[in-house]
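Supplementary Methods. Inverse-folding protocol.

Structures were first reduced to a discrete structure-token string of length 186. This string, shown here, constituted the complete conditioning input.
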């Protein structure tokens, strides 16, 4: 993107960021989904959970975001295969953009949910405040009935991997929503 294009986009990006910050400040609960690059699993989780919240009319009370432990794809949209899988289930994640987890995220989010153990470990090392480490968990902790404990990375696999990821995320999201509603009496 050229210099002029960036200048023309800057006001839009600033206004969008400002609206997101306002929504985060108003929310009662904040949830962050995390995978490695923030282009496959975590944006799908963000989209699935937002749809669930909208269906329960809780979207204004629960703020949802996603991030990656690495900055490989910062600013990029979700993987086209993730977008296609989500769209088949009427979830539009095309507008999401990848970002890297920051140290501030541990204080700003009530739930920091990793897709797998590698990313969980990375988050635990990054979080230097012991009392905030309790906010970091695996997403599939909210689906104890499933045999899997990790959402597998579908990046190098075929389309069935993306469908399986979506199934696991939907199952865990239901458990997460139940936990939030009970804990925060929503």
């Amino acid at each position: 993107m050229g210099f002029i294009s960036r200048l023309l986009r800057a006001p839009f990006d600033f206004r969008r960021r400002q609206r997101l910050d306002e929504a985060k400040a108003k929310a009662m609960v904040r949830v962050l989904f995390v995978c490695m690059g923030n282009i496959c699993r975590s944006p799908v989780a963000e989209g699935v959970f937002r749809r669930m919240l909208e269906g329960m009319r809780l979207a204004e009370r629960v703020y949802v975001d996603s991030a990656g432990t690495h900055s490989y794809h910062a600013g990029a949209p979700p993987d086209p295969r993730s977008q296609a899988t989500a769209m088949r289930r009427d979830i539009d994640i095309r507008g999401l953009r990848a970002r890297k987890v920051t140290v501030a995220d541990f204080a700003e989010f009530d739930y920091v949910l990793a897709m797998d153990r590698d990313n969980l470990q990375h988050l635990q090392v990054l979080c230097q405040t012991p009392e905030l480490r309790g906010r970091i968990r695996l997403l599939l902790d909210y689906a104890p009935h499933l045999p899997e404990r990790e959402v597998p990375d579908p990046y190098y696999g075929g389309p069935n991997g993306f469908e399986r990821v979506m199934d696991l995320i939907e199952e865990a999201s239901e458990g997460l929503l139940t936990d939030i509603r009970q804990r925060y009496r929503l």
